[in-house]
């Protein structure tokens, strides 16, 4: 068979492991690499590729060996892409990505192109599955770095009483919740804000005031999409082709300084969360590779309209229909929606094994 492998959306610390797994499992097939994400799909940027072409070091680092990107795909774009795929003799397409990627694959499948999805997102917002490759490594970065920031804040609380640290997560709070995990409760955040809980201005200021009174400092974690009304970032846009710069932590810090009269710092962790291969979870890397291998098997069996699943129980990778994940978002479930990190013990128990 002649297959195509590509990636759309942003990279993760382990996305190249999915690529390598796919290529190792398709050694008996001809495989073309899609270069440059959805733009490359429409423009036909395909080059031959084998597992030997992908250096082992690429699997250990962040970024995307294939190249990534975003594009608002129109029906005309889809027609062009289908024509390009057919002219190149492509018999099956695998794309690594999140819910937008799965929507693209579903559209291709509906047009008769055999299509299979390989899950990938640091946001962990893919529906149906327990967790997505990429999330655990970003979470491990946070659980490594944030306690250090809390210790730094303890030392500097005399001149910086409030520190607000911003994680990725424009629509969901999975990463912000991960940042509340600490081996030492003394350096656990005092407050966490996630998009699933409506921002309460007075409640936020009261919680900061309480933390200051109890601890002499207030250390806060916030998802970039929480309190979005304080910024002009288009977090609710259907397709993010505009760069999102974040900054809600700085807006909250300005609010604290204005209303409470204390010094506050807003810290934006940014792209380091998704790109730091040195802190990647080994379990996450192994699961990413397995997802790639299972996608290869599905296409070799001429399956279509499916995404590889990652299921917690029995460590299985049973596929799920693209219709159940395409364009959908999985929020943090109600039992883990809390602004108080001390209430998140069950979430921490769920997360800890994934960190590797």
Features of this protein?
alpha/beta, 2 domains, Rossmann fold, 12 helices, 11 strands, four-stranded parallel β-sheet, 356 residues
What does this protein look like?
- Its cofactor is Mg(2+).
- Residues 3-298 form the Phosphofructokinase domain.
- This is 6-phosphofructokinase.
- The protein is of the alpha/beta class and 356 residues long.
- The chain folds into 2 domains: 2-134 and 278-324, Rossmann fold; 138-274 and 333-355, Phosphofructokinase domain (Rossmann fold, 3-Layer(aba) Sandwich), CATH 3.40.50.460.
- Helices cover 37% and strands 14% of the residues.
- The protein is built from 12 helices and 11 strands.
- The strands form 2 sheets. Strands 3-2-1-4-5-10-11 form a 7-stranded mixed sheet, with helices on both faces. A 4-stranded parallel sheet has the order 7-8-6-9, sandwiched between helices.
- Helix 8 links the parallel strand 7 (191-193) and strand 8.
- Helix 1 (15-25) packs parallel to helix 11.
- The radius of gyration is 21 Å and the shape is elongated.
- The protein starts with a strand and ends in a 5-residue tail after the last helix.
Structure in a nutshell:
With 356 residues, this protein is α/β, with parallel strands linked by helices. The protein folds into 2 domains: 2-134 and 278-324, Rossmann fold; 138-274 and 333-355, Rossmann fold (3-Layer(aba) Sandwich). It has helices at residues 15-25, 37-43, 56-59, 75-87, 99-110, 135-156, 174-178, 201-215, 248-260, 272-275, 282-300, 345-351; strands at 2-7, 30-34, 46-48, 92-97, 115-119, 162-167, 191-193, 218-223, 264-268, 306-307, 320-321.
